[in-house]
Amino acid sequence: MPDADVKHPAPQPIVNQPSGLLRPKKAKSPRKIKRFIVGGLIALLVFLGGVVAWYNYQLSPVGSDINQLEVVTIVSGSTPSQIAHQLKTQSVIRSETAFDIYTRISGKNNSLQAGTYRLSPAESTAQIVEHLVKGSVDQFSITFYPGATLVDNSSSTKKYDVTTVLKKAGYSDQQISAAFKKTYTSPLFIGKPASADLEGYVYGETYKFNTGATVEDILQATFAEYYQVVQDSHLIDAFTKHGLTLYQGITLASIIQREASGVADQKQVAQVFYSRLKIGMQLGSDVTYQYIADKTGVARDPNLNSPYNTRRFAGLPPGPIATPGLGALIAVAQPADGDYLFFLSGDDDVTYFAKTSAEHEANIVNHCKVKCSAL
User: Fold this and answer.
1) 205-264 pLDDT tens trace
2) Is residue 300 assigned to a domain?
3) CB of 209 closer than 8 Å to CB of 217
């Protein structure tokens, strides 16, 4: 008989067990591991490629106009980070971070010098850094153009006037205006009225200056270059033989510069103007009234009442209407032979000359339907 005090364990619920032994977790196949590694490497390469592309782009130029300069003054004691911030603020570089990385990698972060620079946003960060490493002895180029005026108040979208060129070089309106108003001493100004401005006297050429050059320094250099051209080409004697002073010769050349291009055309146009001056006939140049209309801010009108309007008034205008190039100056000194009294620039940009009014009218009908109707 079983002992009544013996306790038996309580019955346990039956749990269905899978048949056989428990299976260990299946290890990833080498193929899957390889795919994972390759995928990771590709992702890493794509990321690194993106970083390199970003870095290269951030080092690229901000702009495209090499003549556009920004005056940047780096004060003594400026850190590379402060310099980067200043360059970014003045839109000379794209990225402060890229600038910092580049100067560190190239080992130039401690070679950046204080000074006043004229930096072009059309240069890369690497080129900008080279300027800063060289210091204040750095130079810049500035180009003036034949046919340019001191100020362009026309509706033209592309402006090449002296003021625009100087502003692109980093000079302020106040600096430019003050320099224009100064009195300069040069044999170039023989015969120039004291009241006349510098129109026609900023010679078209490319010049190099130290970064600290003032507008006055630049103008003086153009005057010196201009007078050298006058001397080398013996213009004063040549103008005198045609009854013109140097100032008058420059004035006539400025009209020819605006009226014709190409040596042959310019010399023939000079012949036309000399012939008209000889008989007291108006020069009839449209570019003269257009110039004074733009300068004074009034509508271009062939009947404009101004001594600059050579359609209405005989003789030369009071002064140059632009800076003549060497070709136009030589044309005044050595005009072509002929007895033409008329000329026009046709719709095909060919210059047509005529001896009589009837021939000129025929040229208008046959060659100048568009251009002449716009005058």
Assistant:
1) 999 998 889 999 999 999 999 999 999 999 999 999 999 999 999 999 999 999 998 999
2) yes
3) yes
Q: What is the pLDDT of residue 8?
A: 53
Torsion of the alpha carbons at 331, 337, 343 and 346, rounded to the nearest 10: -80
pLDDT of residue 2: 47
Mean pLDDT value across residues 357-370 = 93
The model's pLDDT over 139-173, given as tens digits with 9 standing for 90+, comes to 889 999 999 999 999 888 889 999 999 999 999 99
Contact 261, 288 (CB under 8 A): no
Q: Do both 168 and 225 map to the same domain?
A: yes
Backbone angles phi, psi at 119, to 5 degrees: -110, 140
Judge whether 323 lies within some domain: yes
Supply the pTM of this predicted model. 0.78
Q: Of 63, 140, 144, 78, nearest to 110 (Cα)?
A: 78
| Residue 278 lies in domain | 162-339
Same domain, 185 and 315: yes
Separation CA 101–CA 306 (nearest Å): 62
C-alpha–C-alpha distance, residues 259 and 146, integer Å: 12
The confidence score (pLDDT) of residue 16 equals 52
* Counted domains in the chain: 2
Same domain? For 173 and 92 the reply is: no
The answer to the question of residue 320 being in a domain is yes
Q: CA angle at residue 79 from 77 to 85, to 5 degrees?
A: 120
Q: Are residues 273 and 328 in the same domain?
A: yes
With respect to residue 259, please indicate whether it lies within any of the assigned structural domains: yes
> Does the pLDDT at position 11 exceed 60?
no
* Residue 96 to residues 53, 73, 226, Cα–Cα distance (Å): 16, 17, 44
User: Do 120 and 224 belong to one domain?
Assistant: no
| Among the listed residues 9, 93, 92, the one whose alpha carbon sits nearest the alpha carbon of residue 59 | 93
Q: Residues 172, 122: one domain?
A: no
Give the chain's length.
Answer: 375
191 and 108 within one domain: no
Query: Identity (one letter) of the amino acid at 189?
Result: F
User: Distance between CA atoms of 341 and 360, rounded to whole angstroms?
Assistant: 9
Q: Which residues contact 214 (CB under 8 A, 6 or more apart)?
A: 175, 179
Helices 125-134 and 30-59 cross at an angle (nearest 10°) of: 50
